[in-house]
Amino acid sequence: xxxxxxxxxxxxxxxxxxxxxxxxxxxxxxxxxxxxxxxxxxxxxxxxxxxxxxxxxxxxxxxxxxxxxxxxxxxxxxxxxxxxxxxxxxxxxxxxxxxxxxxxxxxxxxxxxxxxxxxxxxxxxxxxxxxxxxxxxxxxxxxxxxxxxxxxxxxxxxxxxxxxxxxxxxxxxxxxxxxxxxxxxxxxxxxxxxxxxxxxxxxxxxxxxxxxxxxxxxxxxxxxxxxxxxxxxxxxxxxxxxxxxxxxxxxxxxxxxxxxxxxxxxxxxxxxxxxxxxxxxxxxxxxxxxxxxxxxxxxxxxxxxxxxxxxxxxxxxxxxxxxxxxxxxxxxxxxxxxxxxxxxxxxxxxxxxxxxxxxxxxxxxxxxxxxxxxxxxxxxxxxxxxxxxxxxxxxxxxxxxxxxxxxxxxxxxxxxxxxxxxxxxxxxxxxxxxxxxxxxxxxxxxxxxxxxxxxxxxxxxxxxxxxxxxxxxxxxxxxxxxxxxxxxxxxxxxxxx
Length: 497
Ligand code: NAP
Prior knowledge:
497 residues; alpha/beta; Aldehyde Dehydrogenase, Chain A, domain 1; 2 domains; six-stranded mixed beta sheet; 15 helices
């Protein structure tokens, strides 16, 4: 990939400007200030204000929608070569400064620096992938059973797409939504999480530095409830792609019903990892630890239910506890930290409340589960492990979104699969086994969108569909070739000659 020279985005001056002046909204192709300013705090060190930003209101979002709607028709007619060029340039600019952008993610999202930098690389890959997708031929030309009639099936852009993103993958999720939206000729309005505005600003600055026509991409900060309502109720917004909590997703769905907006909702989860008697023990422990605690357990694909059959239970527990002792909690910017902070005090309090609840429900806390102090003032929590878990306990039903795992001992595969499916969610799940028959059976029995065999529940590839079932997802799949289902609409043309 071509290396881009340093520009104003990439150097320490830009970093300083993040701290010295509030980040503006990109509305109608202009960088706009608003009356209200909010701070963006580093959860590893609350004395570090990463940036400040201007919050948009109803009037700003309406202006943004109007402009996005006006320019979309021309963008839809743009050449696929231009789209390919723009998306490639965005990927190159992300890669050219991946370490710096990784630091921004680590600072504002509390994600350990290596995982944060990996996220930048993955994000660039989405732009590269969809750069190629934009020049792939789509549609079909067919015969009709009627004489002298031909049929064309065309995929057209859906129109104006609202993109609402969470804080836990602030760049990757924005990338896997924005890249296909632009590739297929849509206008995009990005509403990032108020907890990770800086990386959204960087992405917007990069996009704005390309030849993308003004107004085709907009960035608007503000409260999800306010901006989400305006996007959902507007007849000029044809589609909204949202990733976040179930409550916010359902709220958006209710508000969109009158405008009949096309929706794609990626929401919460409760994922299990099954470990059978014949499992490779080292592999099982590695997959369980990675699934439960990577990204501080704040991943939609994290596994908090470890469903272990009785023959391997004691051995697994000993090895798991030994591995837990090697984990270091600390500042996300410190390369030696395996686990960073919770995103905010609310999440830390929620983790502590779930620890109390688990004990009240009869589970036994064997490790961690406490607020801890480090050299900086942050929202640190020691990774926790419960045993004696039962499927119906709230700690095994609700998404905790923290570094908390609970082991549920089961007799056999049948009981394990019942526990895995015993949830209102259906995003991801895994099994660790050397039994080919059980692995194949699992593939069919698990009522989830992403099946992992001898792998952790987290860690998805870019070029294949992603999504879940039940309360985890609504609408068509994200990423890959499947993204065109959401970002395009099909038109069938009959031609008599
Ligand atoms: P969140 O609180 O629901 O927020 C997500 C985004 O939605 C933010 O930009 C937020 O804006 C906005 N929002 C909040 N209320 C809204 C409403 N009523 N209408 C429209 N937008 C609204 O979620 P989060 O805490 O950022 O992220 C954690 C959740 O995301 C977890 O449940 C996790 O499982 C889920 N997640 C799912 C996937 C997946 O692919 N399935 C991937 C990652 C994360 P403000 O916060 O700025 O107000």
